[in-house]
Amino acid sequence: MASSISIYNPRICTCCISGGGSGGSGGRERRVSLEPPPPISNAPISSPLTGRREILLRCSEIAVLGAILNLSGKKPNYLGVQKNTPGLALCPATNNCISTSENISDLTHYAPPWNYNPKEGRGSKKPVSREQAMEELITVIKSTKPDNFTPRIKEKTEDYIRVEYESPVLGFIDDVEFWFPLGNKSIVQYRSASRSGNFDFDINRKRIKALRLALENKGWASEKKI
User: Fold this and answer.
1) What local confidence, expressed as pLDDT, does residue 224 receive?
2) Strand ranges inside the chain, DSSP E
3) Exposed / middle / buried, residue 223 (Cβ in 10 Å: 0-12, 13-18, 19+)
4) What is the dihedral sign for C-alpha 70, 203, 142, 182?
């Protein structure tokens, strides 16, 4: 049996194998690739589902770390309406708090109060009671979540509401208070402060602004825009 090999392509080997004796003419041709096989990668095959699972896993790990370190902090003992001079507490020296109790010259911490029956609006047409205004505020608190913080109402009396806002990942807590002074005036005092850290990247001020804008759609007004 005779055989012959003819190479016509540097990457393909063509083998002509003849059979059937010395004068056999019924050969068959076979081509063999001379290229090395592609390297096998050990990298895992990724997919959008795998990416989402990894993100959720990392977020869970961070949340657990926050719980271990107790990043939520303890509720400050000075929250609530102050007894000596009726009003909400002043802010600490840190840049993560705003309050209507601050001096108007303190541009870092001062924020103007709200009026739920402004004279230029529904106050002269169809004013609402303090109870109705508190329900409007609670509705806005539950439906407005700036920066994806989760609000939880922790206290509610006839003239006071305290809300805890929890950050979406590490579980930081911000304390936000609203005081409706008893009397004929329709003024609302408030205070929004982070429990930990020195800076809040204006989260507290953004939160109060978002709440104010939503309340303005219901007829409220600010004594001064912030």
Assistant:
1) 74
2) 3-9, 12-17, 28-33, 97-99, 114-115, 150-156, 160-166, 173-179, 187-194, 221-222
3) middle
4) positive
Token pair 């699972």 is at which residue? 53
Give me the numbers of helices (H) and strands (E) for the chain, helices first please: 3, 10
CA angle 169, 174, 176 (to 5 degrees): 140
Q: Which residues contact 25 (CB under 8 A, 6 or more apart)?
A: 18
Q: Average pLDDT in the 5-22 region?
A: 43
Q: Mind listing the pLDDT tens digit for each residue in 159-193?
A: 999 999 999 989 999 999 999 999 878 999 999 99
Angle of helix 203-216 relative to helix 130-143, nearest 10 degrees? 120
- pLDDT, mean of residues 126-134: 96
Name the amino acid, one letter, at 37. Answer: P
**What would the two tokens of residue 107 be?**
């541009």
Q: Which residues contact 109 (CB under 8 A, 6 or more apart)?
A: 90, 91, 97, 98, 99, 102
Supply the DSSP symbol for 73: -
Summarize the confidence of residues 58-83 as an average pLDDT.
66
